[in-house]
Design brief:
The chain has about 170 residues and is mainly β. The chain is about 0% helix and about 50% strand. The protein is elongated, with a radius of gyration of 23 Å.
Length: about 170
């Protein structure tokens, strides 16, 4: 179960969007073996709880942060002949998450705060050139894990994007 709130607004040339969510995601009745248990010794529905069968009922689901938040804003600056310049900034927060049903500090991902920016120049009503930066402060974080492997989140990236509308 959870709650989510979303809002968007436009005031003249200023625009914003935001989203916040809270999630309470837990296992119902669930048993599992941490590995190597002989087949048939751990029924996922009834257990029994013992050295080779762990009762995970009520534990947090994997890759389910309790809190997430996203927000962005931009301002359209009019130029000559209908051209515009649009600076934008986006912020994202993702809370702590477990990467395994068998919770331990080794398999917990920390929360992260990411900032992305872009500057778009729009002309002729259908052309756009955008300079962007993602993960602006080059946050080093683990985005996912699988057994003993850890997967790094994307580093800071810069780029240009040219778009033509039809």
């Amino acid at each position: 179960m959870g709650l989510e709130f979303q809002a968007q607004g436009v005031w003249d040339r200023f625009e914003f969007d935001t989203n916040v969510s809270w999630e309470h995601a837990r296992f119902g009745s669930f048993f599992a073996s941490p590995g190597g248990a002989p087949p048939g010794t751990c029924n996922p529905h009834v257990g029994p709880a013992n050295a080779t069968c762990t009762n995970l009922s009520g534990e947090t689901l994997v890759y389910t942060p309790v809190w997430t938040f996203n927000g962005g804003m931009q301002y359209t600056i009019p130029l000559r002949d209908g051209d515009t310049l649009v600076p934008r900034i986006d912020y994202a927060f993702v809370g702590q998450q477990w990467t395994s049903v068998f919770h331990s500090p080794v398999v917990q991902l920390g929360d992260r705060n990411l900032i992305n920016t872009q500057l778009s120049y729009n002309w002729s009503n259908d052309w756009q050139l955008t300079a962007y930066a993602t993960n602006l402060f080059d946050l080093h974080y683990i985005a996912a894990a699988n057994v003993s492997l850890r997967y790094a989140g994307p580093p800071r990236e810069f780029g240009l994007r040219l778009t033509k509308g039809f």
